[in-house]
Amino acid sequence: MMITAHHKCVAGVATTELKVALTGSLILSLVIWATAIQPLLTFLSAADIKTAVNAVEVAAKNYYGKDIILTHCLTPTQPISTNALISQKLLNADLVIGKNYQLSVSYVLQHIGSWSRASMINVDVTFTNANELQRVTGFLDGTLLSPTQLRFTQPVDFDVDWRSFNPATGCLN
After folding, report:
1. Burial 9-47 (b: 16+ CB within 10 A, else e)
2. What is the spatial distance between Cα 170 and Cα 126, in angstroms, rounded to a whole number?
3. Residue 141's CB: how many other CB atoms inside 10 A?
4. E-strand spans in the chain?
5. For residues 130-137, average pLDDT
6. CB contact set of 132 (below 8 Å; sequence gap of 6+)
7. pLDDT given for residue 50 in this prediction
């Protein structure tokens, strides 16, 4: 009987040591996994931002193109905003609403005499704090405007039939 009791005691110690070893291994694995996954999550956040910026750029170009088609002039007549792009069904609201950043869009106008045309589209991304921007900035190619704001600029190029274009008015004849 003494031998049996001794085996139970040794078996209990071995089980406890095994539990401690497994718990330690599990905790270490979680720490290593959390450390390894953070750069991936940051990259995915940056990719989400870039996707939204690209969608706004395309929508803004289409918005300007629709304005040209309606007015036959290169001078923008409608103010541009993400809300205008969404209301015109050029931009999916899910790409810009409910994010931990705000997107805004504007034209860079090139003035030519008495008229102007959009030569660039600016998409500004404003974060709630500087830490959010610093976390993803290594994966994005925007221009830093402030500790919480990045700007992405896209040129606007349209093929215009210059033979029917009046350079004095900026409109098509």
Report:
1. eeeeeeeeeeeeeeeeeeeeeeeeeeeeeeeeeeeebbe
2. 34
3. 9
4. 101-112, 115-127, 143-146, 149-155, 165-166, 171-172
5. 89
6. 100, 101, 148
7. 96
Q: What is the DSSP string of 67-97?
A: HHHHHSBSS--S---HHHHHHTTSS-GGGTT
Q: What is the pLDDT of residue 157?
A: 86
User: Cα 162–167–169 angle (5° rounding)?
Assistant: 125
Which residues is 75 bridged to in the sheet?
Answer: none
Q: Which amino acid is at 6?
A: H
Mean pLDDT to the nearest integer, 38-56: 90
How far is it, in rounded angstroms, from Cα 73 to Cα 171? Answer: 4
CA distances in angstroms from 17 to 31, 114, 168, listed in the order given: 21, 85, 88
pLDDT digits (tens, 9 = 90+) for 66-123: 999 999 999 999 999 999 999 999 999 999 888 989 999 999 999 999 999 999 999 9
Residue showing tokens 């030569």 = 119
Contacts 24+ apart (CB under 8 A), 142-148: 142/53
The residue-averaged pLDDT of 142-169 equals 88
Residue 9: band (very low, low, confident or very high) from pLDDT cuts 50, 70, 90: low
| Closest to 50 (Cα-Cα) out of 131, 118, 137 | 137
